[in-house]
Amino acid sequence: MAKYTDSVCKLCRREGEKLFLKGQRCFTPKCAFERRGFPPGEHGRQAQFRRRRVSEYQRQLREKQKTRRIYNVTEAQFRRYYSQSLQKRGLTGENLLQMLERRLDNVVYRLNFAESRAQGRQLVTHGHFEVNGRRTDIPSMLVEPGDKIEVREGSLKRAYFKQLKDVAETRSAPQWLERDINTLSAKVKQHPTRADIDANLNEQLIVEFYSR
Q1: Residue segments in the chain with a per-residue pLDDT below the cut of 50
Q2: Which residues make Cβ contacts (< 8 Å) with residue 130, sequence separation at least 6?
Q3: Which one of 53, 67, 78, 123 has the fewest CB atoms closer than 10 angstroms to its CB?
Q4: Residue 53 neighbours by CB distance under 10 Å
Q5: Is residue 117 part of a domain?
Q6: What is the count of structural domains for the chain?
Q7: In what order do the strands lie in the sheet with 185-188?
Q8: pTM over 0.90
Q9: Which domain does 167 fall in, by range?
Q10: What pLDDT is stored for residue 212 in this prediction?
């Protein structure tokens, strides 16, 4: 499976906006997008001064790429989520974003148990979390209403999780998740709605891209 190994800050610069891929660093002056807001590459600086007509295809492609990069999924995974969204009732675009939001690595991030989705993915892969009492190391697992997510008892002794309670309190959890800071656990109350997804995304453009 293809894996992006270059600087993630280049992805923000390519999309022309902050995607908040590096957690707290994105809110500091060290953020590469703040220092070099132009696209990456040899001619990136000149590109910011050129006015080019943006085609409809390019708008659709960029929106798809931006969404994929925000949720840290591969093209194959993203296309599979879209295919599954087509088979569900309701709006395809909202179904797609809902599935991405229900990924376990994203849930760990949204609970503020990780600074970024990439870190959430790493914590899940290393087996620090349990879902309904069972250890899981699958970041792509989709949570369902009634599921309980908690930090494994053995992991609570680690320095990262010992100080996590104070850090997690700085950001509230979305309404579709019920978080318990004291036990570092949470319960899924319902599926996320479109209003619960705070990323600046236009899902209709993604639908149009795959409908060509």
Answers
A1: 1, 43, 49
A2: 136, 149, 150, 151, 152
A3: 53
A4: 5
A5: yes
A6: 1
A7: 134-136, 129-131, 148-151, 185-188, 177-180
A8: no
A9: 104-190
A10: 83
Burial class (CB in 10 A: 0-12, 13-18, 19+), 8: middle
**Length reported for the chain:** 212
Rounded to whole angstroms, how far apart are CA atoms 156 and 162?
Answer: 6
Residue 181 lies in a domain: yes
Assign residue 112 a region (left: φ > 0; alpha: ψ between -120 and 50; beta: otherwise): left
Residues 6+ apart with CB under 8 A from 117: 21, 70, 71, 72, 105, 106, 109
Instruction: Compute the half-sphere exposure of residue 122: CA atoms within 13 Å on the CB side of its CA.
Output: 7
Per-residue pLDDT, 25? 56
The predicted structure's pLDDT at residue 133: 95
- The reported pLDDT for the residue numbered 170 is 82
Report how far residue 57's alpha carbon sits from residue 127's, in angstroms, rounded to the nearest whole number.
Answer: 40
pLDDT at 1: 42
Question: Which pLDDT does position 109 carry in this prediction?
Answer: 94
The answer to whether position 149 is within a domain reads: yes
What CATH number does the domain containing 120 carry?
Answer: 3.10.290.10
The answer to whether position 159 is within a domain reads yes
